[in-house]
TrEMBL record:
Sequence ranges assigned to domain CT398-like coiled coil hairpin in this UniProt record: 11-185
PANTHER family assigned: PHOSPHOLIPASE C-BETA-2-RELATED, SCAVENGER RECEPTOR CLASS A MEMBER 3
Top-rank taxon, per record: Bacteria
Record key words, sorted: Coiled coil
Coiled-coil regions, chain positions: 32-110
Protein name according to UniProt: C4-type zinc ribbon domain-containing protein
Domain annotation C4-type zinc ribbon: ranges: 198-230
Alphabetical list of InterPro entries matching this protein: CT398_CC_hairpin, Oxidative_Scav/Glycosyltrans, Zf-RING_7
């Protein structure tokens, strides 16, 4: 194979690998941010469940205070029944007593409902705590894996770019410029393999004469369809 053509094939191999690794490296910060967002959401859900438990506990304490106050009022009204002189006042006080008993019954029921609600909310909070624990552990483990992977990719890319730089120096200047233009304008593929009938870059059929010339790999031949530099892989 022509020496310059062989170097271009090597450059293409290096540039293809660099593009793939660059793409892989570029996705890693986004993957880490997505995992971090999942952890933030899990913590937000835990905060919300904790706030719900605290709200219900506050409501329960208020109901219990109301219950205690109603109990004191009831005892006070019941004590007065023995001191009342008139039937009218006795009937009115008795009505207040019955009202307080109903109020106490309602408050007792509401306190029980609060306790049930607190129990349910507490179970949800426990579930959210477990989610945060698991999500955080996975985040730390996966973040470390992604960061390690990124370091490996960056190390490999550093080697590839140095090798590419060295190989580029051996290519004739005008040919290297052609290669770079094609690399930029042809989606990263400047040098394409030719099969017996077509260019693998654009799949345009090659004439028999071009195929024969490409097979020899003895000169720089370009595809009439896409302009890519062709070579034959023996």
């Amino acid at each position: 194979m022509l020496e310059d053509l062989e170097r271009l094939v090597q450059l293409q191999g290096l540039d293809t690998e660099i593009a793939v690794l660059d793409g892989a490296a570029a996705t890693i910060p986004g993957q880490i941010r997505m995992m971090e967002q999942q952890l933030i959401q899990a913590k937000a859900a835990l905060d919300a469940s904790t706030a719900e438990v605290e709200k219900l506990q506050k409501l329960r304490r208020q109901k219990e205070r109301d219950l205690e106050e109603a109990g004191r009022d009831l005892k006070k009204r019941q004590g007065r029944l023995y001191e009342i002189k008139t039937n009218q006042e006795y009937a009115a006080t008795l009505k207040e007593v019955e009202g307080l008993k109903q109020k106490i019954s309602t408050l007792e029921e509401e306190v029980l409902v609060c306790l049930d609600d607190i129990d349910s909310a507490g179970k949800i909070r426990t579930q959210e705590e477990e989610k945060v624990r698991i999500t955080q552990a996975e985040f730390l483990k996966n973040k470390q894996q992604r960061e390690d992977e990124l370091l490996k990719l960056q190390h490999r890319l550093s080697i590839l770019r140095k090798t590419r730089e060295d190989r580029s120096e051996g290519v004739e200047a005008s040919l290297l410029q052609l290669y770079l233009r094609l690399l930029k304008s042809r989606d990263g593929l400047a040098v394409a393999q030719a099969t017996s009938r077509s260019c693998e870059g654009c799949h345009v059929a090659l004439t028999p004469q071009v195929c024969n010339e490409v097979r020899r790999n003895a000169e720089i031949r370009t595809c009439e369809g896409c302009g890519r530099i062709l070579y034959w892989k023996g």
